[in-house]
């Protein structure tokens, strides 16, 4: 009994000490912040001076992981982005996997207008940098890097992302940000530096002629925006992002976008033909080796998606009012309704710009009037895979992704006839609990 008490007390005291340390560090950085106007880099004085003296050891260490670098970064964070949790500012993370329509759904936020800072797949650079010679990604390193980069970006801090861009940006300027043009925030007037004749930019703005991306300008613009949204297909487990949900500077809303794994596989076999050539061969042979690494990978993907959704739907305290599950099939059939729901969930006004973009780019105008032909057309698009994916392959997906299909309400097919019978819908009406 006594030992128990002692242990509790020691534990409590330790907690208090840790808490105190934290306070000291934040106060120190607050002080630093006070001396600086926001967004100006630290001048070589005080702590930062001390840090600069270690410049040599930084560079020789080379790796981005040293605790010192992190601490320096933290201090810079505080000084540059002394963001108070402003009431009403929302941070949306649209999480998906490839071929689930996430670019399209991302547009719902990209088109929001002047109040939104939207980023399209910033983690592309991180994944690329962490790709091993074997072709896989260093999962341990990726989990941490994805989380930290996302967290910084939601605070309008690009410094960690910059460190993953190859070649490294010079003076916070890069001509190589992946798909810059897919994020209207990065092609706005205020983020558009003067066009440089002859400079090659693979990803350049389409709406106006801009020079290479200046991250300082991007950060300044981001800080002015009321809301921020990032879409990513690279986060494997929702739980890895828990620190973001618990960050008092953020009000994060996770939207997980899912799609029938059979449709995803069919789509990937077309889009990433080289990577999926085994599947294509199996589809032709009508025989899938169930213990193959490719099949295990498919199972792993399905399990990750399902486990993320299970946590989200269970609504643990850290996710309360922060998680929404959306099926691609519902968005394809009822885009306006689902977009409205997403905005309501995010707590952001649904703007006329978004509405008109959806009207222009979907069949939504007929959605409300329930015109049968358009509804039918949309579902045809959604169910096209049923005529390209061989039944044998569908069976394998059902086998290894069974629990995932079940959770999201995708019906199993038991025969080739059922697979290709258009009169049978494979999408159950399902309302997911979220609030
Ligand atoms: C830091 O180190 C780099 C490379 O060694 C050098 O070019 C740079 O001038 C140094 N900066 C400072 C402030 O010492
Ligand atoms: C993966 O990253 C971790 C953490 O950064 C590192 O310790 C490990 O050596 C890396 N593994 C490989 C295979 O590169
Ligand atoms: C990048 O933008 C910042 C902020 O507007 C500006 O001070 C800086 O000079 C720009 N850099 C270049 C090389 O134009």
From TrEMBL:
It is found in: Golgi apparatus membrane. Its EC number is 2.8.2.-. It catalyses: chondroitin beta-D-glucuronate + n 3'-phosphoadenylyl sulfate = chondroitin 6'-sulfate + n adenosine 3',5'-bisphosphate + n H(+); 3'-phosphoadenylyl sulfate + keratan = adenosine 3',5'-bisphosphate + keratan 6'-sulfate. One of its GO terms (cellular component) is Golgi membrane. It is a single-pass type II membrane protein. Signal peptide: none annotated. GO terms for biological process: carbohydrate metabolic process; N-acetylglucosamine metabolic process; sulfur compound metabolic process. Pfam families: Sulfotransfer_1. Residues 90-408 form the Sulfotransferase domain. Keywords: Carbohydrate metabolism, Glycoprotein, Golgi apparatus, Membrane, Signal-anchor, Transferase, Transmembrane, Transmembrane helix. One of its GO terms (molecular function) is keratan sulfotransferase activity. InterPro entries: Carbohydrate_sulfotransferase, Gal/GlcNAc/GalNAc_ST, P-loop_NTPase, Sulfotransferase_dom. Belongs to the sulfotransferase 1 family. Gal/GlcNAc/GalNAc subfamily. This is Sulfotransferase.
């Amino acid at each position: 009994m006594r030992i128990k008490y002692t242990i509790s007390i020691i534990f409590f005291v330790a907690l208090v000490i840790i808490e105190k340390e934290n306070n000291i560090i934040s106060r120190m950085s607050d002080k630093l912040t006070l001396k600086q106007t926001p967004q100006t880099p630290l001048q070589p004085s005080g702590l930062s001076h001390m840090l600069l003296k270690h410049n040599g050891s930084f560079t020789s260490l080379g790796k981005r992981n040293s605790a010192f670098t992190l601490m320096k970064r933290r201090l810079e964070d505080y000084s540059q982005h002394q963001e108070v949790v402003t009431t009403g500012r929302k941070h949306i993370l649209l999480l998906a996997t490839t071929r689930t329509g996430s670019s399209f759904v991302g547009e719902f936020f990209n088109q929001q207008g002047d109040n939104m800072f939207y980023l399209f797949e910033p983690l592309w650079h991180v994944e690329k940098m962490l790709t091993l010679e074997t072709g896989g990604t260093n999962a341990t390193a990726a989990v941490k890097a994805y989380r930290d980069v996302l967290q910084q970006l939601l605070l309008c801090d690009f410094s960690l992302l910059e460190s993953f861009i190859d070649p490294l940006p010079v003076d916070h300027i890069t001509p190589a940000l992946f798909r810059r043009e897919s994020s209207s925030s990065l092609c706005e007037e205020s983020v558009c530096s003067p066009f440089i004749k002859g400079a090659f930019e693979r990803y350049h703005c389409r709406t106006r002629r801009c020079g290479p991306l200046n991250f300082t300008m991007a950060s300044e613009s981001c800080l002015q925006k009321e809301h921020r949204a990032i879409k990513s297909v690279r986060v494997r487990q929702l739980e890895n992002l828990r620190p973001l949900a618990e960050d008092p500077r953020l009000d994060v809303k996770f939207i997980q976008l899912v799609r029938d794994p059979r449709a995803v596989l069919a789509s990937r076999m077309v889009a990433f033909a080289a990577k999926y050539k085994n599947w294509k061969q199996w589809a032709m042979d009508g025989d899938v080796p169930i213990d193959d690494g490719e099949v295990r990978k498919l199972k792993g993907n399905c399990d990750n998606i399902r486990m993320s959704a299970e946590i989200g739907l269970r609504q643990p305290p850290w996710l309360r009012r922060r998680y929404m599950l959306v099926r691609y099939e519902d968005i394809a059939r009822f885009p306006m309704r689902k977009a409205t729901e997403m905005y309501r969930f995010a707590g952001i006004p649904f703007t006329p710009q978004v509405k008109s973009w959806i009207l222009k780019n979907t069949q939504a105008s007929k959605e409300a009037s329930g015109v049968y032909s358009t509804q039918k057309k949309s579902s045809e698009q959604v169910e096209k895979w049923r005529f390209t994916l061989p039944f044998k392959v569908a069976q394998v997906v059902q086998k290894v992704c069974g629990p995932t299909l079940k959770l999201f309400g995708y019906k199993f097919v038991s025969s080739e006839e059922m697979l290709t019978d258009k009169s049978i819908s494979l999408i159950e009406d399902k309302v997911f609990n979220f609030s």
